[in-house]
Amino acid sequence: MPPSTVLLAEPRGFCAGVEMAIKALTWMVRVFEPPVYCFHEIVHNRWVVKAFEDVGVIFVDDIEDVPAGAPVMLSAHGSAPEVVSSAEERAGIVVDAVCPLVTKVHHEVRRMADRGFEIIYVGHAGHDEAIGTVAEAPEAITLVEPETGLTDFAPADPSKVALLAQTTLGVHEWQAVLDEAQHSFPAVSMARKSDLCYATTNRQDAVRSLTESADLILVVGSESSSNTRALVRVAREGGVAAYRIDDVNSIEDTWLDSATVVGLTAGASAPDHLVQEVIDRINPRDGVRLLSVTEEGEYFPLPPQLRSLLRALQQTVEAGFGARPSAEPGPLDRDVDWNATEALAAISRYG
């Protein structure tokens, strides 16, 4: 017998940074003949990556693999300064789709390093965001894994220590190191506004609410997604059995055998059609209930390099074929009303 109810978390899935990055790469695919190159996965979701690969995007982990003069996009997770400069020297067009929240942390790193602070950066070694952030001032940063804490961190001047974080950390991961740092270095300096991504925090709050009613929680997202893995941890810390799934094919029948209420959510880079397929697979007897903890209205505009390119193309077309009426909005004016789900549908077969 199927579970009685699916309790669907809100918010879930795409955040504003992912929305911006996917729409930006969709524009690149539309404007340029393939292949279009992207440094690292545009977002950490294998379905999204595969959708772009199918239309001619080539993902690379080394800018040297980009042919001279080719168009290249830099991923949403942020890139090291040397990567950006190398791309600008090598590629024909460079569009940096870094999330503005990651840019904020990069700015904080440079500011603190310039002021002579030794920086504790709480993050996961090897994660694309951590690599790009540490590269902003490697001589001033010590990367600290949230699981291990400060360990042997010993600054030359304990009064000049700064604490920053990978944006996709779980609140519980950040809090443990924050408490330790404030105890060890009472004068520790931090950004006025939390480094943790609002979307990550909101999705974790929603999962905590799911644990109050669900006896099984499924989290849609890829293993490479830090915020997706954090959602699973939050659910399990709440005492509920929880599993990360790439898609509906990852569900094991035995998980559902004893489940009455299944909580369902998705990481910040997971497409919502994957969530709907899970609902269809579960086929709850009493349907789906929405559990909403907050509304998200954040919007990040397309990267400035891409906006400039698209406006130039638009002006060229209008000059050649007659200008559109001045009151009629152009594609960039409508960007706020166009979402990443629609962008993916435009380049793929689902939807």
Task: Throw out a few tags for this protein.
351 residues; alpha/beta; Cobalt-precorrin-4 Transmethylase, domain 1; 3 domains; globular
Brief overview:
With 351 residues, the protein is an alpha/beta fold. It has three domains: 5-14 and 198-292, 3-Layer(aba) Sandwich (Cobalt-precorrin-4 Transmethylase, domain 1); 16-98 and 300-321 and 328-347, Rossmann fold (3-Layer(aba) Sandwich); 101-184, 3-Layer(aba) Sandwich (Cobalt-precorrin-4 Transmethylase, domain 1), CATH 3.40.1010. The protein has helices at 16-31, 46-53, 81-90, 100-114, 128-134, 171-184, 198-210, 226-237, 253-257, 272-282, 304-321, 340-347; strands at 5-10, 36-39, 57-60, 71-74, 93-96, 118-122, 141-144, 161-165, 216-220, 242-245, 261-266, 288-292.
Characterize the structure shown.
39% of the residues lie in helices and 16% in strands. The radius of gyration is 22 Å and the shape is globular. By secondary structure, it is of the alpha/beta class. The model has no long low-confidence stretch (mean pLDDT 92). It contains 12 helices and 12 strands. The protein has 3 domains: 105 residues, 3-Layer(aba) Sandwich (Cobalt-precorrin-4 Transmethylase, domain 1), CATH 3.40.1010; 125 residues, Rossmann fold, CATH 3.40.50; 84 residues, 3-Layer(aba) Sandwich (Cobalt-precorrin-4 Transmethylase, domain 1), CATH 3.40.1010.20. The longest helix has 18 residues.
